[in-house]
């Protein structure tokens, strides 16, 4: 053991653990271009989770889209359809926002649409989960439309700029302008 290092697990009272940054010290920053959590294994796991979530949301949405509640006896509100469409919109939008590419949201959308299509078929016992009424048609086409719109929507927000530049991405552009060229 070196004289300037404390014994394993032993530190002075009130001081940080050996090797830990002191209070108020700047946090370590990754090297430029490094993406945190970008190992091949974590990306594959993320894609598998996206597939499973898409299939799960498609299956649950297909089952619950027929639920409705009566509003004061005046009309039936298709609450299951509303909740299912909002849930898939939030799932796909969330995946689109957090993933660096469209692949995770595209995989979730493909699994979702595949599960909806599979559960639309008549079962061997003759039961049908998606009847050919207005609610069923809105579920079929609405879920597909939401998936296509979310995947096709451009990713807006902070754009990458060359290292060492603080200004706008293009000369003459306003500093608060959104760069849509990428």
Number of helices: 4
Biggest sheet features: 2 strands, antiparallel
Assign the structural class, choosing from mainly alpha, mainly beta, alpha/beta, alpha+beta, or little secondary structure: mainly alpha
- The amount of helix comes to 40-55%
Distance between the first and last residues' Cα:
54 Å
The low-confidence runs, each spanning 5 or more residues with pLDDT under 50, are: none
Global shape: elongated
* Percent range for β-strand residues: under 5%
Global Rg: 25 Å
Spatial order of the strands forming the largest sheet: 1-2
> How do the helices and strands follow one another from N- to C-terminus?
HEEHHH
Keywords: Membrane, Transmembrane, Transmembrane helix
Protein name: Histidinol dehydrogenase
Pfam family, one: DUF6113
InterPro entries: DUF6113
Task: Describe the protein.
This protein is mainly alpha-helical and about 180 residues long. The protein has a domain at about 40-150. It has four helices and two strands. The protein has helices at about 40-65, 80-100, 105-120, 135-150; strands spanning about 70, 75. It has a two-stranded antiparallel ribbon.
In short:
The protein is mostly helical and 182 residues long. The protein has helices at residues 40-64, 79-98, 103-120, 134-152, and strands at residues 69-71, 75-77. The mean pLDDT is 80.
Tell me the layout of helices and strands:
Elements: H1 40-64, E1 69-71, E2 75-77, H2 79-98, H3 103-120, H4 134-152
Antiparallel strand pairs: 1-2
Helix pairs in contact: 1-2, 1-3, 2-3, 2-4, 3-4
